Amino acid sequence: MGMDHYLEVFIAESREHIQTCNENLLQLEMNPENMEIVNEIFRSAHTLKGMSATMGFDDMTKLTHQMENVLDGIKNKKYPFSSNLLDIIFDAIDLIEKMVDSIATGNDGKIDVSAIVEKLRGVENQGSITGSNNEIAATRTMAIENETLLGNFNEFELNMIEESINQGFQVYSITVQLSDECMLKYARSYMVFQEVQQLGEIIKSDPSVTELEKEQFDNQFIITCVSLESAELLEQKIMDVSEVMNVTIIPINLGDLKGNTNNNAAQEQLTIDEEEPIFKNPEASKAIAKIPMNKTIRVNLEKLDVLMNLFEELIIDRGRLEQISQELNQPVLSETVEKITRVSSDLQSIILNIRMVAIETVFQRFPKMVRQLSRELHKKIHLELLGEDTELDRTVIDEIGDPLVHLIRNSIDHGIELPEERIKNGKPEMGTIQLKAYHRGNHVIIEISDDGSGINSEKVLAKAIAKGIIDSQQSKQLTEREIYDLIFTPGFSTADTVSDISGRGVGLDVVKNTIQSLGGSITVQSKEMVGTQFLIELPLTLTIISVLLVDVNQETYSIPLSNIVENIMLDKRAIEYVQTQPVFRFRNRVLPLIYLQEVFQVSDAPNQDSELSIVIIQKGEKLAGLVVSSFIGQKEVVIKSLGNYLSNVYGISGATILGDGQVSLIIDCNVLLD
Amino acid sequence: MTVQALDQERKIITFVLDQKLYALDVKYVKSIERMLPMTRVPHVPAYIKGVINLRGVIIPIADLRTQLHLDEISYSETTRVIIISTNDKEVGFIVDEAMDIIDIAPQDIESNTSTYNTEQHNFFEGVIKKNDQLMVLLDIEKLLTY
């Protein structure tokens, strides 16, 4: 297997461990006494160290090693736990994250770690008199001596050993101790391997061959070998290699292995090395046992995308089949087509489900961000996360992170007041930002609310007039809501001073654009002194949606069902006019009437009917009636983009291919309602 | 695009618009298709005639006659759509008739195009004289910005 393959696994697992560290560190800040959490962090740091050493990322190894020492110090209560100490560890983890990112983008992951290593050392030295470095080294050797010398075997290796024993081979665990003066440790280990390989087959080496090559081991290594020869002969041959101090050979019996199996399986899962004393701790091993094993596999995202594309093709052909069977009107054919339709609907829900990712993956980076920013700004902020298990299409997940970061930064910077001010205003000293996700119909809603100072609508108006976004005449007619919406206009920024946290020149208009490009919408509600709430509405999936097909003077358009309230027939005489805008009454509301024929400049065909076909569409609280020539029917369609050449066509969000191969444009109701 | 081609032979595809020969660099040409049913798209420049479904991919179509300010004619049996694909855009250009793919040397291209009408001029890369025939080499980048 090539290194590339390992690299992928390495990157994925490193990211997981970094995330675990981050989460646990935040936990630790709240419960500094809980040593179980320190153990968790230690374990992750240790695994990171092991992995980076194996992959040869020295800077990362150095940094994680030093981090491990400090964590060990915390665990053994050598120095008090403080927020400052936590900051340093956070910095270190940030740096590790940067390295992983660098490695992931094909670089070598080399970053100057000396500064942060120094800081960590500083913590260590000032805190402990004995110097935990030595101590760790000491415990480590002890641990090795106490080792059963059996090493760890994964399931594959265990099977191999079992097989070999059953076939009459002997399996030996050989511990080789090189002399302390040995200069070329790798060369010697290589010679030992050569000798052993002449007599049998090596199935495992601990440390691994790569680590041996890099001389990343003390003077001892353990190899497991399958052979027909006697232990004495092996010992003699190995002792012949110069600078070998000592050889211990233990034959492995099936019985020994059985006892080991369960233990090792669990530990293998967590990639734990036995050499650390910490895992000998019974409490820790209990924690391992508690983690439920999920039967999951990692799948390359590209494969999922291919699957999705193929499925889209299938849906298009299904549409074609449905049409043909309708035309031919053959019972047998219709039955089969119906069945295909049913099966493919099930298939669709499964495929869409596979692509769904819990929003947790986006949320989990926020606690740390909030902590850091609030410390920088000397504010006290509590972040509440709700509905982290709400699932969204992967494509949406990938895109939604940045807008959320922006909104949260906004809340921290402009929303939550300084502690003194909050107390003066009769609020609790600690501000709260709540991030909440939940399903509503075919949508996912994300709410970002804070109990800060709220939006001052007069300030917004003044600013909008000053920036020339509206004139003072217009400003008098705006509702409160419309005023708040002004903050999403390009070139608008309410902060009096440009700070490092939000006002970076990218405004909320970028947030709005991103969300709209995902087919979603954003609204804001606010009350001065009480707080602000941003509400983001996103579609569950992006690629396959249900639409109503309508005819507009011989052209077929698609209207997403998620925007439709209902279809009605309206007597032409019921149309009224407010100034020049045609309107009609619908359930005690007066709704504007939009003639699609005019919006989309369709060639004229006078409508002789006395009734109009109207689709009532909705976005948030806004409703309107779209006048069409006739309703065609409901359909599941695959959304396709119009491409970069035709980006941003007014009123059109994309296109789809109908059963007969024709292209139908999908109407963007959000724009029509604006 | 012009710079790197200075000392190299280039392949171009030639086609007819209003009885004159025009050419495009072949490296951006993905395929040549017969006319397919089009769906009109509102609120776009007049030369963008709509979108087609080309084997499951939706591709916008521009009428080169209209874009080059020539008179529009109705599409016939010889009408072809040249599908162009650059790294970020895909477009089909409607032409009267597609002709040949030919090799040209840098010295075949005359960059002085002042004798042609100015509205078309914006889209020119140069004029090619080859085998006693004159043809206009169009600049794809310029055609793709609308």
UniProtKB/TrEMBL annotation, chain A:
Domain HPt stretches: 1-103
Protein name per its UniProtKB record: Chemotaxis protein CheA
Residues bearing PTM Phosphohistidine: 46
Pfam families in UniProt: CheW, H-kinase_dim, HATPase_c, Hpt, P2
Alphabetical list of CDD domains matching this protein: CheA_reg, HATPase_CheA-like, HPT
Origin superkingdom: Bacteria
Catalytic activity, EC: 2.7.13.3
Top-rank EC class of the record's enzyme: transferase
Catalyzed reactions per annotation: ATP + protein L-histidine = ADP + protein N-phospho-L-histidine
UniProt cross-references to InterPro entries, sorted A to Z: Bact_Chemotaxis_CheA, CheA-like_dim, CheA-like_homodim_sf, CheA-like_P2_sf, CheA_P2-bd, CheW-like_dom_sf, CheW-lke_dom, CheY-binding_CheA
A GO biological-process term: chemotaxis
Keywords: ATP-binding, Chemotaxis, Kinase, Nucleotide-binding, Phosphoprotein, Transferase, Two-component regulatory system
GO cellular component: cytoplasm
Organism taxonomic ancestry: Bacteria, Bacillati, Bacillota, Bacilli, Bacillales
Automatic annotation (TrEMBL), chain B:
GO biological process annotation, one example: signal transduction
Name of the molecule in the record: Chemotaxis protein CheW
InterPro entries: CheW, CheW-like_dom_sf, CheW-lke_dom
Taxonomy of the source species: Bacteria, Bacillati, Bacillota, Bacilli, Bacillales
TM annotation in the entry: none
Annotated CheW-like domain residues: 9-146
A GO cellular-component term linked to this record: cytosol
Species per Swiss-Prot/TrEMBL record: Perspicuibacillus lycopersici
